[in-house]
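Input sequence (144 aa), recorded before submission:
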Amino acid sequence: MIVSFLNQKGGVGKSTLSVNVAAYLAKKPRKVLLIDADTQGTVAAWAALREERKFQVVSMARDNMARDAMAMAVDYQDVIIDGPPGAGKITRAAIIASDVVLVPIELQAVAQGGVCGFAKTGEYGLGPRCPRNGRDERLPDSEK
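Predicted structure, token format:
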């Protein structure tokens, strides 16, 4: 299974979650690949500091990473993708490659806006739902 951690906003914990979920799965034990698809390279930098890892880490921050990620996935039980902030081509490629997309958020309006950005565009098929005042409501047509 390929799981991506994505959000338009940076600093919401995508890299932290990616590393920790990969480590958890590797302890099961499962064969795990962690793909650093963020141009900042946080996960790759973390991996470079570790002498021993229970899972493989590769950097793949490029627009056409979907095909390569899916091809590599056949050799692993689980693939985790740490995505970049924003909704650019790398994010789109991560969504295409993924079986599951998880969107971590902080409990503050600015971070929730990153989720709403995905929903409003409709470009990624997430639907026009956006939290407002703690409720899940349909966006008015004027905001889609």
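Checked by second reader. Residues 2-105 form a domain with the Rossmann fold fold (CATH 3.40.50.300).
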